[in-house]
Design goal:
Length: 218
């Protein structure tokens, strides 16, 4: 069972305008806990395994900006830069027989293209967990994008941003273009990387690849 709460939110607390340029700084702090009610010792013969239990804290800071004056109502040109950093401050999985596995949901990193951790087929599960824990990244540069829109007719967004596409949740690295005519809307979406910056779920950028050949990922 997960219990998550945003313990601090300070919204848009800085806003400045200069010749049509407007910037807003916002952020939040998130504390999340995964509580496992089954904390019995491992008994492989009886199929008894304890549930994962750990707690995390993460903070996000972002700067959003608009590059057009407010009097230009038909056009929008805006962007954002931001990132998240956090840490696991309680890890109940450390007592697991093969070592901590909290990295699976917070800080997992195996390189953008995979293979960075150098996991070998001969590595025991304990060795694999040790390698993954050494390569944990507790930060994500999650937002860096520009977006232009003309009324409801045309929109383009490019860079690193939070995806709104089905089956592509989290942060995406790429672009999307949308056009609308009357009640018909067409969207093109291209992604060259994914990441997650949800406070309780933190994962740095990686290439989402699903093609396997001879035991290797292309």
């Amino acid at each position: 069972m997960k219990k998550a709460s945003q313990v601090l939110f300070f919204g848009a607390f800085l806003s400045s305008s200069l010749q049509g340029f407007e910037a807003k700084l916002n952020g939040f702090v998130d504390q999340s806990s995964t509580i496992g009610f089954n904390q019995h010792k491992i008994n492989k013969e009886r199929g008894i395994y304890p549930m994962q239990q750990f707690a995390t804290i993460a903070g996000y800071l972002g700067l959003g900006f608009s590059l057009l004056p407010k009097k230009v109502s038909d056009h929008v040109l805006k962007g954002k830069i931001g990132g998240m950093v956090g840490s696991i401050f309680y890890d109940g999985t450390k007592k697991f027989e093969d070592g901590s596995v909290a990295y699976n949901l917070f800080g997992y990193y195996d390189g953008f293209m995979g293979g960075y951790t150098n996991i070998l087929q001969t590595d025991s599960l304990e060795t694999q967990n040790m390698k993954y824990n050494k390569n944990v990244r507790n930060y994500v540069f999650s937002d860096a994008y520009l977006e232009y829109a003309y009324k409801n007719y045309f929109e383009i967004k490019a860079g690193r941003y939070l995806s709104t596409m089905p089956y592509k949740s989290g942060q995406t690295q790429g672009f999307q273009v949308s056009g609308q005519y009357k009640h018909a809307r067409l969207t093109w979406f291209s992604s060259f990387g994914r990441a997650f910056a949800y406070g309780s779920f933190l994962m740095d950028w990686f290439a989402a690849r699903t093609t396997y050949s001879g035991g290797f990922t292309k």
